[in-house]
Here is the input.
Amino acid sequence: MDRPLGLLAELTYKCPLHCPYCSNPVAVPRAAELTLHEWCRVLAEARQLGVLQLHLTGGEPLVRPDLTPLITQARDLGFYVNLVTSGVGLDERRASELAHAGLDHVQLSMQDADRGAADEIAGARVFGHKLAAARAVTAVELPLTINVVLHRGNIGRIGPIADLAAALSADRLELAHTQYYGWGLLNRSALLPTRDQVVAAEHAVAHARATYGDTLEILYVVADYHESYPKPCMHGWGRRHIVIAPDGRVLPCPAAAQIVGLGIETVRERPLNEIWHHSPAFTRFRGYGWMSEPCRSCARKEIDFGGCRCQAFQLTGDASRADPVCQLSPDNHLVEAALRVVGPPHQPLHPRSNPSVE
Amino acid sequence: MTAALLLTDRPQLRRGVRAATDPLSDETVLLFPEGVLILNETAAAVVRQCDGCLSVAEVAQAVGEVYDDVAVADVMSLLRDLIAQKLLVANRG
Ligand code: SF4
Ligand code: SF4
Here is the structure.
């Protein structure tokens, strides 16, 4: 079965928050966002390709005034529709509107369990809005996953974060270490936790799981920098997922736009079906033929697909190398070096700013 | 961790999990926030009976009427597996 299952629709790069770990690109090209009409066409094309799941993300998808009709259209086409949101602007009226349109699930980001720390890292006083958003989501009986990106500043509060998620009646809590792309990479030395913190976090997760049992499912997405082998990024390049940027560029991974010379095409120029099958951006790292050693003759390549192409590009300048996170990679010293410079607990962060794409 | 499952439990898809038909293969799939699970024919028949009202015993009986090679133990082990994957919940009492 070689077909895409998931579509990540980045509806906009605008966001009222300024999370310094945001994985959105630091610089985005000036281009108009896809209209509702264009998105509807693209969704129909994605459905024909076999996509079953639609993740509406950004930026903040709620800033799109046409979110509701988009969800209606997506459900009519048969997608499972997941909204990934910061919750700002999600009151009970809007939540009920989205639920009626057919939304299946809400993934709400929270920054921390501590109000002051949460608002500081978000760069906006939004903690109260997020509590209200969580209550609005559960009030209209939409399933709720609370997402927390872990970094040096909040990783010590996994217990209180789980308590908060349980108090908000979340179905699930996803604790995911920062992925070092975009703003996250820019702020890496201030965000990376120490190895001791990572070990303590694992204990805290186990403790929270024991405390909440079946009442709160806790997912823990490990810190790849601290692992011996890379993550199976996107379940393989051009294998299961499609990402569409706000301006219609079609990517195999949200961070792929930075790879120089990838030959990215847009849904404004070519049907999605052709892009999926033939676009150089998708065929370049599909399968195993592009691999060099040590991946080429490694048995793990079918598990991790050589790791993340974007991470390889960011750290080595060559997207076709093994993910430097891998202990077998000749570039692993680059990750080791990043871990060595994990410095004092408080370092200045560059808050995410909004792109000037009006 | 194997969840204890009683014949009197009434299984049901968990909130946020939806059964659908794959437009390409016509197979039944379970859709949930993190992914997709493709069900084989008998698993699909079992899941279709899991409405939160029928007990495990009743589900097994209904499926057994259509597929006579499916034993109660098979249904139980499938349900346990789906519960462990957090796709199904078992109502009790
Ligand atoms: S990570 Fe923060 S800044 Fe980035 S899109 Fe999400 S809420 Fe907005
Ligand atoms: S050498 Fe390549 S395929 Fe093998 S574990 Fe490392 S990244 Fe994965």
